[in-house]
């Protein structure tokens, strides 16, 4: 008990998620002199697992790891407390100012006047036999993290969006041969990524086809295909990379009683306010920015939220619904996965 008490800390703003949305919000919050903590297991969020970023203004080309470090260093230098933990529960104080109290996985308590949910999304699974069984033993959702384990080995990547094609490009630097399996004829990825992968010698595209099972005995040794390819209904591969988009985990939004849409995206108004009082949301997990889920849009939403948080906390007469309440009637968005 004494230990838990000692661990309790208090801030104006608790930011859950240390990706671009959370860290950008922190930079602005610090400028507004709001004490803030950014709580998240990975500094930089998804950016830290991205191979190359070439479309974020000011950086013609930069590795995800370097950009993630720049983001977290910036937030830290401006005053953020970075807490590398996961938030597992949230509760609103019934008395006093109605602060939110967050609990982390090590039972640390974080009390704050306002909360920003910047928890991003989680990788989608293809949902076929063998996928869960071989996760971490040949099945991967992170090319940057795992490509080097497949040096001179044949691998397959599933997906047709930017993440899949950029991942494919990175994999060609390691794998003996790479199969790109995509269920459609055309790619959603930017043409530049498709062209760069096509220019590689060690790639085969298998389009309008799907992986239906991950095969192996102890570790992956192949995948089954929906349609035969060159007369064979399976591919011999040692690694299976899955890059078919991502969806938010609704657990925390539900803990805050913040309304979400059918795809688990948090419903927000123009100021990034959710339906739960003094809870804002920003980044890939929200319905804003036309669901264009990028570093630039995530940081923009975080910045907008921080500005509104500052205004709201500094106006004693402010009501939650003043800036337009979020209702369940907010249109449900379509979730495109690959
Ligand atoms: C492979 C790949 C390549 C990409 N390439 C580009 C690119 O080149 N350019 C570009 O603009 N965008 C790119 N993106 C998209 C970009 O990374 C995201 O749009 C951006 O990171 C979203 O930022 P975010 O802060 O909303 O969420 P995230 O970056 O997902 O960060 C959210 C963080 O919240 C944490 N979190 C979740 N739940 C909790 C909890 N309960 N407690 C504490 N923390 C929690 C997560 O662990 C995560 O670290 C890429 C994405 C991927 C997957």
Radius of gyration: 22 Å
Q: What do we call the CATH homologous superfamily of the largest domain?
A: FAD/NAD(P)-binding domain
> What is the CATH topology assignment of the largest domain?
FAD/NAD(P)-binding domain
How helical, in percent, are the residues?
10-25%
**Sheet with the most strands, sense and barrel status:** 7 strands, mixed
Discrete helix count: 8
Bound ligands, named by name, code or SMILES: flavin-adenine dinucleotide
Q: What is the CATH C level class of the largest domain, in words?
A: Alpha Beta
Number of strands: 19
User: Which percent range describes the beta-strand content?
Assistant: 25-35%
Low-confidence stretches: 329-338
Structure description:
- The chain has 338 residues and is an alpha/beta fold.
- It has two domains: 2-123 and 246-323, FAD/NAD(P)-binding domain; 139-242, 3-Layer(bba) Sandwich (FAD/NAD(P)-binding domain).
- It has helices at residues 2-7, 20-31, 64-78, 143-146, 162-171, 191-198, 251-255, 295-313; strands at 9-16, 36-39, 52-53, 62-63, 81-83, 87-92, 100-104, 109-117, 122-123, 139-140, 154-158, 177-182, 203-207, 211-216, 220-229, 232-235, 239-242, 246-247, 279-281.
- Strands 1, 2, 5, 6, 7, 8 and 19 form a seven-stranded mixed β-sheet that branches.
- Strand 12 (177-182), helix 6 and strand 13 (203-207) form a beta-alpha-beta unit.
- The longest helix is centred in the last third of the chain and has 19 residues, at 295-313.
- The protein starts with a helix and ends in a 25-residue tail after the last helix.
- Mean pLDDT is 92; it is low at 329-338.
- The site of flavin-adenine dinucleotide has 34 residues, from helix 2, helix 5 and helix 8.
């Amino acid at each position: 008990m004494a230990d838990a008490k000692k661990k309790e800390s208090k801030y104006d703003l608790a930011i859950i998620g240390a990706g671009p949305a959370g860290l950008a919000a922190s930079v602005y919050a610090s400028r507004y002199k709001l004490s803030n903590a950014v709580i998240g297991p990975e500094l930089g969020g998804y950016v830290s697992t991205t191979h190359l970023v070439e479309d974020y203004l000011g950086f013609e080309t930069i590795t995800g790891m370097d950009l993630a470090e720049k983001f977290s260093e910036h937030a830290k230098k401006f005053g953020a407390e970075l807490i590398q933990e996961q938030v597992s529960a949230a509760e609103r104080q019934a008395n006093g100012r109605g602060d939110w109290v967050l609990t982390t996985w090590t039972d640390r308590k974080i009390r704050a006047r306002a909360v920003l949910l910047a928890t991003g999304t989680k990788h989608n699974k293809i949902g076929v036999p063998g996928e869960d069984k071989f996760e971490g033993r040949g099945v991967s959702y992170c090319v940057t993290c795992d490509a080097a384990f497949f040096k001179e080995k044949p691998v397959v990547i599933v997906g047709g969006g930017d993440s899949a094609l950029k991942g494919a490009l990175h994999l060609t630097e390691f794998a003996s041969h790479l199969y790109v399996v995509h269920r459609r004829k055309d790619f959603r990825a930017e043409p530049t990524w498709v062209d760069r992968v096509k220019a590689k010698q060690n790639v085969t595209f298998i389009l309008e086809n799907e992986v239906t099972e991950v095969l192996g005995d102890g570790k992956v040794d192949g995948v089954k295909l929906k349609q035969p390819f060159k007369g064979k209904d399976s591919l011999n591969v040692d690694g299976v990379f899955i890059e078919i988009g991502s969806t938010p985990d609704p657990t925390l939004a539900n803990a805050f009683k913040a309304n979400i849409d059918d795809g688990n995206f948090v419903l927000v108004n123009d100021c990034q306010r959710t339906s739960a009082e003094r809870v804002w949301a920003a980044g890939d997990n929200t319905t804003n920015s036309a669901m264009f889920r990028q570093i630039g849009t995530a940081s923009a939403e975080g910045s907008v939220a921080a500005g509104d948080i500052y205004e709201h906390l500094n106006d004693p007469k402010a009501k939650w619904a003043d800036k337009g309440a979020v209702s369940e009637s907010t249109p449900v968005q379509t979730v495109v996965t690959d």
